[in-house]
Design goal:
Layout: E1 25-27, E2 30-32, E3 42-45, H1 65-76, H2 78-92, H3 95-103, E4 108-114, H4 133-144, E5 148-155, H5 178-195, E6 201-205, H6 220-236, E7 242-246, E8 266-272, H7 283-304, E9 308-313, H8 322-336, E10 339-342, E11 362-364, H9 378-387, E12 393-395, H10 397-404, E13 433-437, E14 445-448, E15 454-458, E16 462-464, E17 467-476, E18 480-491, E19 498-504, E20 513-519, E21 524-529, E22 537-541, E23 548-555, E24 558-565, E25 571-572, E26 576-577, E27 582-588, E28 596-607, E29 612-614
Parallel strand pairs: 3-4, 3-10, 4-5, 5-6, 6-7, 7-8, 8-9, 9-10
Antiparallel strand pairs: 1-2, 11-12, 13-17, 14-15, 15-28, 16-17, 17-27, 18-23, 18-28, 19-20, 19-27, 20-21, 21-22, 23-24, 24-25, 24-26, 28-29
Helix pairs in contact: 1-2, 2-9, 5-6, 8-10
């Protein structure tokens, strides 16, 4: 029998009948069962269960799990803290939640967990005696309710980013520590040995959001090597579960295809939050995100013949489409053959009931007193944790209705043309060279006009962070020069696309540089990397519209930028010290799968001690 709609209006689950689970594997770009039939994995994250993100518990001023645990340790001791956390875990998610999730028409849960649940921090080489008991418990409940599980290492040893989901803000030590990398590999070896024969596990999501210090962190080579180590370690145990390699904030383009890696049952995963991180918060922003990003990702994965998990996504805002947009994404992902798990299942808060803008499927129905764990008595904290398993819940009825109706709600998105994927021209500007820094893709191109203007076509994902990935039209320069250009437009779909004047010490991607640029909205920024491999800083200026004239005067190691917008007068900025051996124009699309087009006129490089060298 197939599952039926199974949620009452009060958010309580009804009993439903289902078919038994079949093991999942990868076949081309699809997930399939043991009979080779395609399976649409559609589900939700069980966030805040095995890794506490206190904002989901209504305690937003405690920054992370590390702080949460430390407060309890100091107040009550480590042993009592362990008892309290076990009490919390016994109640945050229970059997009723798995039944409720199934009633939303879902068949999968992604299970985030922190590594410390498995490893004794006082003896990092040893596993906790009952360390796997909670994972066993969760998998058992999922299996009993015919839900697949995706195991998600949400917080790795040392931390894989500076963000709260790792369990400790600003840790981010995984990338520079062989010890932490070895521990991460060993954790997956232990998990594989334990769960290799478990059909309820659909996939291993081996590392959540490996974002490092943020965009342009330069961790791709380390991440790729770590993921390949984990893959081979899991396979060496005899475990054949699907393994998912995670993308960075720049995507998955730095990986090789499974065929090139001689790997099987291998897929990839990313998180998409258009309107929050990836696109403007509007229906048009979502439409552009689909056109600009998702279509390209789908094409890549079809070429790679690899399955894909959207491990986290949420529209959040009602004014950007809300539940209708959520249904649209789920249907779109299914049409691509992608698995998808929204963030997140449950959140509790002072204000009861479902709100228009939200991150959850269920929340507390009635007002609750959320204790301050820094001052509340242990009895009060225990009572609060116990109440989490029995409190009345409100379900997002509108989302429930949209997910379970056979005919999708009428919802039309604006139509946008597919972005430019390759440079249409490869003209040559005499005396100048065009390079792709950091092997930026798609490759750059140039289209010369009869009046001396030109179009610079460029890919790349950013000029920022520790290194730059962009198109760069350049030539060597002396110790005294001025460079100037008029930018009449920037045609791009990614809002962080940019084009402008650049000075560099070298054409190495991590070189010291100064980038004086315009964004597509007409705003201006000055981006500066003082030393090799250092994180760049950026100062932005108000948008006044096109055209935009940019100029940099350079004298003995000091650059003085100036700009002019529309009919305004010139504005001179403060001087910046930078060693410049090359100068020119740089542009970046902000997406390794599409091209930005910068329209440039009146481009000239001149010596401050001689006549202009117009171009």
């Amino acid at each position: 029998m197939t599952s039926q709609l199974a949620v009452q209006g009060n958010g309580e689950p009804l009993e439903i009948a289902t078919e038994p689970l079949s093991s999942i594997s990868a076949e081309g770009s699809s997930f399939v069962n043991a009979s080779g039939e395609k399976v649409n994995l559609r589900g939700v994250n069980l966030g805040n269960w095995f890794l506490i993100e206190s904002w989901m518990l209504g305690i937003g001023d405690i920054p992370d799990q590390h702080t949460f645990f430390s407060i309890l340790d100091v107040r009550f001791g480590a042993e009592k803290r362990e008892e309290l956390i076990n009490l919390y875990r016994s109640n945050w998610i229970t059997a009723r939640d798995f039944k409720l999730i199934q009633g939303f028409g879902m068949n999968t849960v992604r299970l985030p967990f922190h590594y410390s649940m498995l490893i004794d921090k006082t003896e990092p080489e040893s596993y906790r005696e009952n360390g796997f008991a909670w994972l066993d418990h969760a998998i058992s409940l999922a299996r009993a309710n015919n839900l697949y599980v995706i195991l998600d290492l949400h917080g790795a040893p040392g931390g894989q980013s500076v963000d709260q989901p790792t369990g400790k803000i600003d840790s981010n030590e995984l990338w520079d520590s062989a010890k932490y990398q070895d521990m991460t590999v060993n954790i997956w070896e232990e998990l594989a040995l334990r769960y290799m024969d478990e059909p309820a596990i659909a996939a291993y999501d081996i590392l959540n959001e490996p974002y490092g210090e943020g965009p342009r962190s330069g961790i791709e080579d380390i991440l790729k090597n770590l993921c390949e180590r984990i893959y081979h370690t899991i396979r060496a145990t005899g475990d054949e579960h699907v393994i998912l390699f995670p993308g960075t904030q720049e995507g998955i383009f730095f990986y090789d295809s499974p065929t090139e890696m001689n790997a099987h049952n291998l897929g990839f995963t990313e998180h998409f939050y258009p309107g929050i991180f990836h696109a403007e918060p509007s229906i048009e922003g979502h439409a552009r995100f689909i056109s600009d990003h998702l279509t390209g990702r789908h094409e890549l994965l079809q070429t790679w013949k690899a399955p894909f998990l959207v491990g986290e996504f949420n529209v959040v805002f009602n004014h950007t489409g809300g539940d209708r947009m959520m249904r649209h994404y789920w249907d779109l992902y299914e049409s691509y053959g992608w698995a998808a798990t929204m963030w997140s299942y449950k959140l509790i808060k002072d204000k009861p009931g479902v709100e228009d803008d939200n991150w959850y499927i269920v929340t507390n129905k009635n007002p609750i007193d959320i204790p301050d764990i820094r001052t509340a008595s242990i009895e009060t904290i225990e009572a609060f944790f116990k109440s989490l398993g029995t409190m009345k819940l409100s379900a997002d009825e509108q989302l429930l209705e949209k997910l379970n109706t056979l005919k999708p709600p009428r919802f039309e998105l604006p139509d946008f043309p597919n972005p430019l994927r390759t440079a249409p021209k490869q003209d040559v500007l005499k005396g100048w060279q065009l390079n792709n820094l950091a092997d930026a893709t798609p490759s750059s191109g140039l289209e010369l006009k009869s009046d001396g203007a030109f179009k610079l076509y460029a890919g790349g994902d950013d000029i920022f962070g520790k290194f730059d990935s962009c198109g760069y039209l350049w030539q060597p320069v002396s110790k005294s020069f001025a460079i100037e250009a008029e930018f009449t437009s920037l045609e791009a779909t990614e809002r962080f696309a940019k084009a402008g004047l650049m000075l560099r010490k070298s054409n190495n991607a991590d070189s010291p540089m100064l980038f004086f640029n315009a964004f597509k909205d007409g705003s201006i920024a000055l981006c500066y990397r003082k030393a090799k491999g250092q994180f760049a800083s950026e100062t932005k200026f108000e948008a006044k519209g096109w055209p935009i004239q940019l100029r940099i005067d350079y004298q003995d190691g000091v650059a003085t930028p100036s700009f002019k917008q529309s009919n305004e007068s010139w504005h001179q900025l403060s001087p910046v010290s930078v060693e410049a051996n090359t100068a020119g124009i740089a542009s970046v699309s902000g997406d390794l799968n599409q091209i930005a087009t910068a329209q440039v006129a009146n481009f000239r490089l001149s010596s401050l001690n001689s006549a202009d060298k117009s171009l």
